[in-house]
Structures are given as structure tokens and as C-alpha cells.
Amino acid sequence: MSREETTAGGQRSEDGDPRALYETISAEMQRVLVGNEAAIEQLMVGLLTRGHILLEGVPGVAKTTLANLFAQVSGLEYSRVQMTPDILPADVTGTYIYREHTGEFELQRGPVFSNVVVADEINRATPKTQSALLEAMQERSVTIRGETLDLPDPFMVVATQNPIEMEGTFELPEAQRDRFQLKLTIDLPDRDVERELADRFDDDPDLGPDRVAQVVDRQAVLAARETVQEVHVADPVVEYILDLVEESRTHPDVSHGSSPRATLAFLNAAKARAAIHGRAYVIPDDVKTLAEPILAHRLVLNTEADLSDVAPTDIVADILEDVEPPGAGADELSFD
User: Which intervals hold domain AAA+ ATPase (predicted)?
Assistant: First the structure.
């Protein structure tokens, strides 16, 4: 499908309709991917809300491929940085290089000057390099030798990490994890999905990101982002978000709960999820679906919970069970 064609829903990808945009992107990505619908949805949520994504999963579950495909079909400039202990901040942000033939210093922009930046195995980089990247995420600009340079718009960091190999890694501090709007866990596929994957690659061993087409463009993404901002969030839903965040701070297994950045992440991400599902208003299920990706990586467990191997995801499940959503038990409640 070219970017001038209409989607299956009859909408042009340029018209700012988040649902049409999401369906077009998802359909094209699933020509290669199998069983990653939830991850595609949440990548779309991040893109439409200026959010950054932390992907966690064992090697071989297509974390990097997922980000690469997403950039390709979205018509966005993509770069990948393989994080290692010897990588320097300048390797990410860029630096000035002396050109002998001109006698002048020339700016060499780093890979951070892309729309989608994939930081592979971010926890292998030193804290200094992590901080350089995370500062760019927060400020959406970098400073090189006193000159502040704006990053492209849209700008999105997708960082990956391996949860089972800790040797030679530097765990992201709590304040830096908080910079990521969502943390997604890419699980091993079930047998049926893995069989479909095997069949696809048996038929086409070279199947990969180069097989997908650009189906939307940057202007369509920016227009859809404006549409998301207009999505309505009713007062009961806002109070539900505040209740969830407050409960994350008072849970008995938590030493430090979520910051106000989590509240804003809920608000923005829920609006995006509503929009890509064709609604102009947020419902409690939007918030509940996003609770684990937004809260789990922000929780700092107390010593007792840590020693007892309590999982942050279990705490989020407790929070959702303890906090009653708006409309529970009511015959009718409108959120539009």
C-alpha cells in the first residue's frame, strides 16, 4: 500500500485518524512479525504521545526487529546503537571533528539524531553514557561543546535489555527508568505462534524488515498525535488514575512508588489507546490495560519484598484489585 492509498477502514493515512494509522502500521508489520500485537499497540501509544519504550526479553524474541519494522513502516528515520561498556556519550550524541583540508571543526551528528533510536542492551552501557541518552530523552535536545541542538520530531527511544544475563551490566537507576513511559516484556511465543513463525521462515528464509513497505509518513504521524491530544478524559477516570498512582506509593511491599510522571504517562497513554481503538474518550479499561507497562518498572520494592522475590507485576495486580474502577457496580456511567 502506498501512502496515498486508503486503509482497509476507508481512511487515508494522512488524515490524522489514529485508528486508521494504527491498523495500517500493524497490518504491514505482521507480514513479518507473529504474535506481537500488544507490543505494536504500545509502540504506537508511545509514538503518539512522545513516549519512550523499554523492551525487556531474552535474546531471540525479536525486540530489535520489532523496533526496526515499526520505524520502516512509519516512514521514520531509524538508528541502532549497540550499547557496550566502552561506548562513550559522544558515540551516541555526536561530536565536532577537525577537517584538515578546511582547517575547521565539523559537527558529526550521532545516532541520537533519528526519529526512532534503538539502544540495544542499554544496561551494558556505563551510567555516564546512559545518562547522556536519557538526558536527550527528557530534553529532546543535546548540547555539544556548548551548542544546543534540537532532536528530530517525532523522537522516540526504544531501549532493550536482557533480564537473564547480568554479568557486565549496569542496572538502570530508578530515576532513569522513570524516563520510560512504558516497559514492555516480550515473552517467548507459545507453540502455535512459534509453529507459524517456523512455517513462514521455511517458506521464505530471508524474511525480514526489508520486506515491509512504508505505509504512512511523518506528517500522518504528527497529525494523528494532534488528534490524540483532543481525546476526552472524564473526571472519574482521572480520579481512577490518581487512585492507582497513590496506591503504588502506599502498598506495603513498596519502598518508593510512582512519581507524578506516572500520572501523566497514564493520562497521555490512555488517550492514545482510546484513539487507536476508535474512541474520542478514555474508559477505565484503557487505564487498566496500561497499568503494568506504566507502573511495574517504576516501583522500588522494600527489602523484605525484595528478599521474598515479590515481583513488581504482582504488586500491580494487587493495586488493580484493591482500587475500584469508576462505574463498578453502576448500571450506567458515561465517560464521553
Answer: 49-190
Least confident of 66-70, 101-105, 210-214, 275-279: 101-105
Contact 80, 110 (CB under 8 A): no
**Structural domain contains residue 276:** yes
**Per-residue model confidence as pLDDT tens digits over 240-298:** 999 999 999 999 999 999 999 999 999 999 999 999 999 999 999 999 999 999 999 99
Is residue 78 one of the residues assigned to a domain? Answer: no
**Neighbouring residues of 178: CB distance < 8 A, sequence distance ≥ 6:** 259, 261, 262, 298
Residue 190 lies inside a defined structural domain of this protein: no
Distance in angstroms (rounded) separating the CA atoms of residues 282 and 22: 17
pLDDT at 13: 45
Query: What pLDDT, on the 0 to 100 scale, is given for residue 191?
Result: 93
Task: Note down the domain range covering 308.
Answer: 230-328
The total domain count for the chain is 1
Q: What CATH code is carried by the domain that includes residue 296?
A: 1.10.8.80
Q: What average pLDDT does this structure show over 315-327? A: 95
Instruction: Read off the pTM.
Output: 0.88
How many beta carbons lie within 10 A of that of residue 76, not counting itself?
21
Report the 10 Å Cβ neighbour count for 310: 17
Coil/strand/helix, residue 53: strand
Burial 256-279 (b: 16+ CB within 10 A, else e): ebbbebbbebbbbbbbbbbbbeeb
Query: Is there a domain that residue 55 lies in?
Result: no
